[in-house]
Amino acid sequence: AETTTSTSATFTFSTNEQGSTFECSLDAAAFAACSSPKQYTGLESGAHQFRVRARDAAGNVDESPAIYNWTIDATAPQTAIDSNPPASTPSTSATFGFSANEQGSTFECSLDGAAFAACTSPKQYTGLAVGAHEFRVRATDALGNVDASPASYSWTVEPPPSCGSQATASANADAW
Questions:
Q1: How crowded is residue 88: how many other Cβ atoms within 10 Å of its Cβ?
Q2: Is the dihedral of CA 163, 165, 168, 173 positive or negative?
Q3: Contact predicate 129/157, CB 8 Å
Q4: 3-state secondary structure of 2
Q5: How many separate helices (H) and strands (E) can be counted in the chain?
Q6: SS3 sequence of the chain
Q7: 41: Cβ–Cβ under 8 A, 6 or more apart, which residues?
Q8: Closest listed residue to residue 136, CA positions, set 126, 148, 144, 145
Q9: For residues 55 and 65, is the Cβ–Cβ distance under 8 A?
């Protein structure tokens, strides 16, 4: 594919002259003898160009080699949590904002170890129980590369402050 996550590539080619041989070049390297199919493995992420030309039995070289350009994107996006609740709060609601370093990424969220599920930013939770909580979010880019180290944030919902039982005070004189 023109854009792929695969770090391997296989090319097949032919010519219309019997007895011809081929020369291949990857990423502007010098042409070297090759045969069809030609396979490459362990390619780096980034733009690549494959060129192949034929040499006939008389030694004539094709002056316009066949060219194929493609891009490998095997790099997962990085996910960031941009906004979150305080580390300790009496609020039983929490809202998280998040983003990724690759445009067009989609997200999956997890609360308190639950399975990841599709979500969008901002993500809001309500009715949270008193106690410790953990929010995790991971991005997936347009080619399906998933952030293997989701962004996470831990916080605690504290019980509301207790002022003891209600008491009524009465005054027995004016006071300043």
A1: 9
A2: negative
A3: yes
A4: coil
A5: 0, 15
A6: CCEECCCCEEECCCCCCCCCEEEEEECCCCCEEECCCEEECCCCCEEEEEEEEEECCCCCECCCCEEEEEEECCCCCCEEEEECCCCEECCCCEEEEEEECCCCCEEEEEECCCCCEEECCCEEECCCCCEEEEEEEEEECCCCCECCCCEEEEEEECCCCCCCCCCCCCCCCCCC
A7: 7, 8
A8: 148
A9: no
Q: Is the pTM of this model over 0.85?
A: no
Tokens at 124, concatenated: 């809001």
Q: What is the distance between the terminal CA atoms of the chain, rounded to a whole angstrom?
A: 85
φ and ψ of 104, to 5 deg: 80, 5
Q: What is the length of the chain?
A: 176
Is residue 41 a contact partner of residue 8, using CB atoms and an 8 Å limit?
yes
Distance CA 79, CA 136 (A): 10
Strands 21-26 and 46-55, how do they pair? antiparallel
List, run by run, the mean pLDDT of 10-residue segments along the chain (176 residues): 93 93 97 97 95 94 95 94 97 97 96 98 97 98 94 94 72 65
